[in-house]
Amino acid sequence: MALDAGGRYQLQGYVDRLARAGDGAYEIHDYKTSSSLPSDGDLRRDRQLTVYQMAVQRRFPDARAIRLVWHYLAFDLERISARTPAEIESHRRAAMRLIDTIEAAADFPPKVSALCRWCEYRDICPAQKDLLEAELPPRGAHAAGRAPDPQARPKAAPSLDRAEQIELFD
Ligand code: SF4
After folding, report:
1. pLDDT of residue 159
2. Which residues in the chain land under pLDDT 70?
3. Bridge-partner residues for 69, per DSSP?
4. Domain layout of the chain by residue ranges
5. Nearest-CA neighbor of 154 among 134, 126, 139?
6. What is the CA radius of gyration of the chain?
7. Helical H runs in 60-125?
8. What residues does 32 pair with on adjacent strands?
9. Nearest CA to 162 among 31, 68, 43?
10. Rounded CA separation 97/40 (Å)
11. Is 45 in the pocket of ligand 1 (CB under 6 A)?
12. Do the beta carbons of residue 112 and residue 127 sit within 8 Å?
């Protein structure tokens, strides 16, 4: 969806589930696997579902009421919130400012996290390339006639189940 009338500020996202409740309200459901619960303030500031609400309002102009519903699976808990038009407008403007900031950036410092283990850019990342180098077999080992030591190969990222993978992105 575009955030502005001219279509310069574009976002793409995927709603986990969109439902029509018995009272006619549209409900935007999001499933979280995180091991901590957000505060009410965190939910009020949540940009993700606010942007989803903008998209649903545009796609379904008949939507008179829209509820935002988070499912915290580890706690078997549902949290529900709603947005005022002023809050939506504030999020829209903030998202456009953020896009401007990102597009104007000339410096991209590495941001090390658990996701580095799956990153395709570790070999050129200033924060990770030395670590990766240490995981590789010594240079020339193969050329010197020694068989590559399978134990010396870089370790594959440990396999995680889907819930653990999703949690890394929360
Ligand atoms: S390895 Fe990838 S994800 Fe980690 S800091 Fe470097 S660029 Fe970022």
Report:
1. 55
2. 139-170
3. 29, 80
4. 17-104, 114-168
5. 134
6. 22
7. 85-104
8. 72
9. 31
10. 24
11. no
12. yes
Q: How far is the CA of 43 from the centre of ligand 1 (A)?
A: 28
pLDDT for 133 equals 83
Q: What is the DSSP string of 6-41?
A: TS-SB-----SEEEE-TTS-EEEEEEE--SSPPPHH
Indicate whether residue 110 lines ligand 1 (CB < 6 A): yes
For 49-90, how does the pLDDT look when each residue is reduced to its tens digit (9 = 90+)?
999 999 999 999 999 899 999 999 999 999 999 999 999 999
- Res 153: pLDDT: 45
3-state helix, strand, coil in the chain (%, to 5): 40, 15, 50
Which has the closest alpha carbon to 53: 29, 73, 37, 35? 29
CA–centroid distance, 116 to ligand 1, in Å, is: 5
CA angle, corner 56, sides to 48 and 49, nearest 5?
15
* Ligand 1 proximity of 116 Cβ (cutoff 6 Å): yes
CB-ligand 1 contact for 114 (6 Å cutoff) = no
